[in-house]
Amino acid sequence: MIGGPGVGKTTLLGSLKEQAAASGAVCLTASGFADDAAIPFNIAEQLVRSSAATGALDVVARWRTAGERYAEAERDLLRCLVREISDVLHRIAGGRQLILAVDDAEHADHPSLMCLLHIARHASGTRTLVVLTSGQAHHLGTRVHSCHHLYKIDIGTLPEREVGRLLERYGDAGQAGRIRASCHAISGGNPRLVKALLRDHLKAARSGAGADVTVGAEFQESYRRCLLSHQALLQVAQALAVLGPYGSPWRVASLLECGEERASRAMDLLNSAGLLEDGRFRHPAARSVALETLAAEDRARLSAKAAELLYADGADPIAVAELLVTADKTPDQKGVAVLWQAAQKNLDEGCTEEAIASLRLADRADLSRREHMDILMALVGALWSSNPATAEPELDRLLAEIRAESPADIPEQYQCFLLFMVLWFGRYGDAEETFTWSSDGGDTVTASSMAALRMARQWVTFLKPMLIHGFPGQDAPEGEVDGLWAANLEHGLQLSVDELGIEIGHLQDPRQVADFCPDAMHLLSPSNHFWFAYAYACRIVWALAARGESEAADRLCGALFTAADKLNMKTPCAVALSMRAYIRCRHGDFTTAIALAGTALRSIPPRGWGVAIGLPLSVLVAAHTAIGRLEEAQRYLDYWVPKEMFDSVVGLEYLRARGQYCLATNRPYAALNDFMVSGMLIDQWPVDFGDLAPWRIDAAEAYLRVQEPAEAKRLALEELKLSPDRPLSTRGRALRILAMAEDPDKRRLLLYQSAKCLREQGDRYELARTLTELSQDYLSTGETQQARTTWHEVQRLMDECGMSAQHESRRELVVDGDGSAASAQLFEEAAEPEGDDDDAPGTVAESAGQPVLSEAEWRVATLAASGMTNRQIAKSLYITVSTVEQHLTRIYRKLSVGNRQELSRRLWLLIGATGASSC
Predict the structure, then answer these.
(1) Residues 252 and 267: beta-carbon distance below 8 Å
(2) Does domain 9-145 sit in CATH 3.30.70?
(3) Judging by DSSP bridges, how do beta strands 276-277 and 280-281 pair with one another?
(4) Are 448 and 520 in contact (CB under 8 A)?
């Protein structure tokens, strides 16, 4: 007799059957089931059916009929049947060794057990072996234990050391040592599960997975077979899987409507088999397998019943809500209350999908109008934070329900949130209607109404500035856009509601609680607290960026992302990444900007972005254009954008990025149109966005491209008049444009001033453009040493901005008005490493294979390349015109050029590559 955990017994019987087949013995098998224990001769019938002797089945039918008449008073009948059955089983063996193997013999019917005992008592000299397995050997009774020649074997799970040996047998020692502990912890020492884990691990190792043990399909299938081989234990495992961490013997008994002792005994058996550990599943995959064995209707039934049990015990609302969602039954009022609490708690803990499931189920209940609006509002917010595309249909339902009756009883916080939602999706008709709800909220001013009003103003300023014309109240105080306020907000994003205070829409003085109605207090949960901070953070980031306080804006974006990520809000995370990308792009960190904006764009579907899709797209277009990846920039311009986007702040940046792309692709008039439209929009809006979209400078650059320097100069001067209120980068750009539009004799001083402003601001890209113009100015006056030094600083800045030194358009990126392929090629070559520092001034390294120009030839060449005539060169150098002509003849021959335009380009190559100088 073998006693121990069910799976170990089954494994041993499987090995016994294999050995019997190999030795030529006849092995007949049967299994006991609790539900079949009352069927007479059930085990005996299974033994016969397991053989190929189908002729004996007629006898089985007679046994069954006789057994049904069996009673304790008819012992002689039982003895006759037992002897007849024994003879039939021995005839099946046909003189070969006979092995009768019965699994779970504690569930054997009484007549069959008597038959097995009879065979066992007379087995001596008959080459017969009777093997009985039982997880509860004491249930077999004293007759089995008093049988002669009884051998009792207790089988347990393997300890960790033996698990290692088993792994070594089927794998290698090094591998066994690495995964032994994990295998033992997951399998509980069950040999079948250990082998399955090893097979999973070997498969994963071949596919390049990590060194830790893998729980895969082999383990799940083996675990499933272990459960399915014992129906009574399977039911208990299923109940435990439904209950999750709240599983206990009495809850399992209540769920299965059985005795607590039976449930406890079954759990002990599962523990001893390694399938459980202290009544808990050892791995999530094991619980999943147990749940998968349940039919959908059975799981729903058990889940509903388990929810009632846990609710009665006062369990965590999240656990009860999870069961209610699985049961998928329309909840009653108690269920709605639990689902609401669980949704709020899940949102606060970042479990957005679970919160959405709870809210969707609660939405199906028979609710009052206010309760239904509360749930729909929370559902819309949760869906938006996860995937805005799924929120819009629910938003339609919510608006329809509000319109059905007077919206006057809607809390101000809800009106504010609705306004944001419709603006996000560009639904300006709905926005104007919602706006009237906010405007006509009555004359009573409370802390909550003021907070909602201020927050709504942030959304309107960001997404539909024209609505500010009729918005109640005054604009935000000036202090709300400075670096100190941003630092406070950055700190506040990490605080609790009580610590944060009224500054972003919450209570600072406990006495102000009276201003909030009781059923609005749930708005002060961490997830809803985030919304208040989020509204201000978005506005302040843009304001700080426009004023040039990029460092504070960047830190605030980081705090906003951290807070959103903690709550698992994908959409706010994507917006924070996009704003951070925008700030990095403004400072020439194009590589980081592209990475951040690309991640943001991929975070949520394009349709879910609404009008805000222009935020990551504008960064991606502008950054790719700046580094010369025009095909990539075009790819992002091909994205569909809603026309309503151009009525928002986001539209300004998109127009600007598209205009810059048009300039880079030699379409200056198209660029000019985008820049002028930006200016028109800004002039119409009642909000001062400062340097958010410096359209005058952009337009001035386009005017330079179409050879209208007077217009470029006018716009640059207009911008400079505003520059005291603008960041230094804007002033630096304006000064460069003015330098390009002014007379050459005034150019250098303006370029010096431009470079100074841009250095202080830290705008590397614009500084590179200014220094390029300065380098050209040095070259035009023959100051090739300064030109070379300045050009190499330009190259360093371009490298820092992410522009490849070998990029074909590197020259075009920083020089206005010169887009020829030849020029691009020359600057590509000029990016090659310099010659040795020991090369004499005025010469070129011979090892580099470059022509040699004398000092005098360098002076003549640089002046000729700058556009001077031979007579002007002669006057400047105090030599004759004939001498100039002789020098130019030798220069043209040495450099293999035919005219002064080619000479200019060839000199840029020599300056950039060798450091030649005329000084």
Answers:
(1) yes
(2) no
(3) antiparallel
(4) yes
Summarised one tens digit per residue, pLDDT across range 744-794 is: 878 888 999 899 988 888 888 899 999 988 888 887 777 878 888 888 888
Which residue is associated with the tokens 């006898």? 59
Residue 910: the pLDDT is: 65
Euclidean distance between CA atoms 276 and 188, whole angstroms: 8
In the three-class reduction of DSSP (H, G, I as helix; E, B as strand; rest coil), residue 131 is classed as strand
The whole-angstrom separation of Cα 757 and Cα 544 is 18
CB 55 within 8 A of CB 96: no
CATH of 855-912, one of 3.90.79.10, 1.10.10.10, 1.20.120.140, 3.40.1190.20: 1.10.10.10
In this prediction, residue 639 carries a pLDDT of 92
**Amino acid at the residue 891:** I
How does DSSP assign 601-660, residue by residue?
HHHS-GGGGGGGGHHHHHHHHHHHHHTT-HHHHHHHHTS---GGGGGSHHHHHHHHHHHH
What pLDDT was estimated at residue 711?
A: 93
Task: Report phi then psi at 705, rounded to 5.
Answer: -65, -30
Which of 697, 671, 681, 619 is closest to 646 using CA atoms? Answer: 681
Backbone angles phi, psi at 783, to 5 degrees: -90, 70
The answer for residues whose C-beta is within 8 angstroms of residue 826's C-beta and 6 or more apart is: 811, 905, 906, 908, 909
Name the stretches of the chain with pLDDT < 50: 7, 71-73, 474-489, 491, 495-524, 805-849, 913-919
**Amino acid present at 38:** A
- β-strand pairing of 2-3 with 153-154: parallel
Phi, psi of 719 (to 5 degrees): -65, -40
Q: What span, in angstroms and rounded, lies between the C-alpha atoms of 87 and 285? A: 48
Angstrom distance (rounded) from CA 511 to CA 619? 46
Domain map of the chain by residue range? 9-145, 160-215, 490-568, 573-665, 855-912
Main-chain dihedrals φ then ψ at residue 636, nearest 5 degrees: -80, -25
Half-sphere exposure of 423 (CA within 13 A, CB side): 25
Q: What are phi and psi of 816, to 5 degrees?
A: -75, 135
Closest CA to 335 of 370, 371, 299: 371
Distance CA 503, CA 521 (A): 18
